[in-house]
Amino acid sequence: MLFWKYSRRLLVLNTHQVSKNIGTRSLSTVEDGKYKGNYDIIIAGGGMVGCTLACAILKNSLLSNLKVLLLESSPDKKFELKPEYSNRVVALNQNTKVLMNSLDIWRHVEQMRLQPVRYMQVWDACSDAMISFSSAENLDDDVAYIVENDVLLHAVNTELNTSENKSLNIVYGSRIAEYQLPSSGEMKPNSTVKLSNGDTYSCQLLIGADGANSAVRRAMGVQYLSWSYEQMGVVATLYLAEECENTTAWQRWLPTGPIAILPLDSQRSSLVWSNWEDNAKKLLKLPEEQFVDELNDALWKQYPRSRSVETCTAWMTSCLQRAGLPDGAARQLPPSIRSIAPSSRAAFPLGFGHSTRYIAPGVALIGDAAHRVHPLAGQGVNLGFGDVKVLTELLADTVYSGLDITHSSWLEKYESLRQRHNVPTQLAIEALHRLYTLDLPPLVLLRSLGVQITNAIHPIKKMIMSQAAV
Amino acid sequence: MNKLRIPFITDELSKGTTEKNDKPLKGIKILDVGYGGGIVSEPLARLGAIVTGIDPSQALIDIADTHKDLDPELDDNKPTYIATTVEEHITKYKSYYDALIASEVIDHIINPEFFVKSCIQAVKPGGKIFFTAPNRTWVSRFCLIFYLENVCNMVPKGTHHYENFVTPEELSLILEKYNCRVDAVQGFFYNFLNNIWFRVTTLQFMYGLRATKNI
Known about the structure:
heterodimer; A: alpha+beta; nine-stranded mixed β-sheet; globular; disordered N terminus; B: alpha/beta; eight-stranded mixed β-sheet; 7 helices; 8 strands; 27% strand
C-alpha cells in the first residue's frame, strides 16, 4: 500500500531539467492525461543495468547531448550504508569493473564496500572432482568482486547525480500503464510511454531494462523462451566460525543444487543456496540454529559415492600426477558457519529466459529483460553490463556517422553481437545445471573427469575464464 | 554506405578538435553536389554542418524537403536544397564553401573534367573536396551493372553507364591539373549477403577520394 502511495507521486530530480521540460507546473501534483514531452531515449527500468546505461550515455561525449528519460518504478529512497550487509549480492567480473571504472562508478563502490575474490573453489559432493580459479593464473587480477546490489545501485546513482548533466531526467515511482511501439514500416519510429497516472512521454529510442518480466518485451511481442527451474535461491548473511582473510568464493555442487559462499569481509560471507522449491521453503522456516546446522551439513557432509566413479577419478588423478599436471588433490577446506545474521534469510525463484529478438524498430532490450540465467556461475548481471557497453559503443558510432539513433544497422549489430555472446553463455550455464542436478553414476563420472581435465589443462581453463570475463 | 563515407568526411573535416563530440562539423559550410534524397546531406547536417544540396532535378527537391522535416533533430539546422547545377551555382557562390561532396555523381557525368573544374571553383582555397564513385574495372561493372541492375533489380536498368565511370587515377589527374592536392584514396567494398559496407585497400570496386584545394 505504501508503494502505491509513493507511486502516485511524481518525483523528478534535477530541478533545472524540470523547469525546462514541464515549465512552472508544480511537481507533486498529479495531472491526468498530460503529455510530458519528447525524448531521444527513454530507459524503462532504473535497476543496476538501466542506471548504468543512463550513466554510460551521459558520459559519452558523442551521446551526452541526447535527451534521456529514466523511468524507475520504485520510489526514490535515501540510501544509507548500514553496518549489516544486505543479503542480495552480485559477483562482478573484471570486464564489469573496467566498465564501472571508465564511468567513474567504481570509486564510489570502493568508498563504500566490496570484497575481492582472489581464489574460487568449485567441487562436487558426489565425487572428488574439483576445479579452482585463482588470481595467480590471471596476471594476479582478482577473480571477481562481491558487491551488494544496493551498494552498486547507489554508486551508479551517486555518479548520475554528481555529474553535471542537463539532459537526463529521472522519474521515480512511475508505474507504466502502456507502451505504444512504432510499427515496422514507419520512417521515423516513435514510441509512446503512458504511465498509470496519465502522464505520457514519447521517444525515438526505447530501451527495455525492466527485468525478467519486462513489459517492453511483451509490447514488442517477441518470442520469449523461458522455464522455471523449480528451484529457489536461498540467500542469507553468514558469520564464519573463524575470522580469516576471506577472499575465497566457495561453491559445492549438491545433488539438490549448488551452494555458494561468497566473501563479504573477514567475518562474514553471503550465501546463495539453490535448492528445490519445497526444500527451500522448509529451509526458510527452520529456526536459525537448525538452519546453520543444515548449512554446515551441506558444506561438509559426505554424500554416498559410487565405487566405480571413485576408482576412475583416482586413476585420473594419478595419471595427471604422472604427467606433472595439477591433479586437484590439494584443496582448501571450506569454512564452517557459526551463525546467520538475524532475519537475513530470503529466497527468490530461479528461471531461464531468452528473448529471441533483442530489438524492434526503435526499441532494444538489455539485461534481464533479454536474458535470464541460473545464478550458479554468477553471470546474470555481468551479461547485462556487457549489453550496456556494446550498446553505448554502437550508438556512439551511429551518432558519429550522422545516422538516426533508431537506425536499424546498429540495432541489428547490437543484437547479433550480444546474442553471439549471451546465448552460448546461457547454454553453458544451462548444461552445467542439468548435469549437476543428477546423481546417476555415469553422469557423475563424466562430469568429474571433465572437471579434472579442465582443471589440469590451463588453456581450457583460461578459455572458460575469458568467456566468463567478457 | 553512409557508415563509411560519413566518417570518411567527418574525420577529415573535424581534424584539430581534441575530443569527439556529437557536432564535429559545427559551422562548416558544405556543398553536396547531386544530393539525391538527402542521404548524405541530412547526416552531415545532423553533425552540425551547414549543408547546401544541389541537384538539377526539381522532383528530387520535394522528396528531400519532406524527408528533412521528419527529423526533429534537424529543426535548427536543416539542409538547403536548390535545383541547379554546379556550373550555374558557382556563378553566385564562387570560393564560398569549406568543403564539397560529390557522392556517386561523377559516374553519371559525361564530361568529368568540366564538372570537376566547376566543383573546385565552389570551394575556398584550402577547402576539402570529397568524391566517392565506382572505379572503372570489371569488378564494378559486374557488381553494379550486371548484378544490381540486371539480377537484383535494386537499381533501375540503365542507371549506370560503364563508359562514364572514372578511375581514381583519372580523377586525381584532373584535380591536380586544376591546382588541387589529392590527400587520400580509400577503397570501399560491399558484402552483398549481409548488406554491410567495409573499408578495403583495393580500389577495384568503389573508392573515396579526398583532395585539398591549394591556396
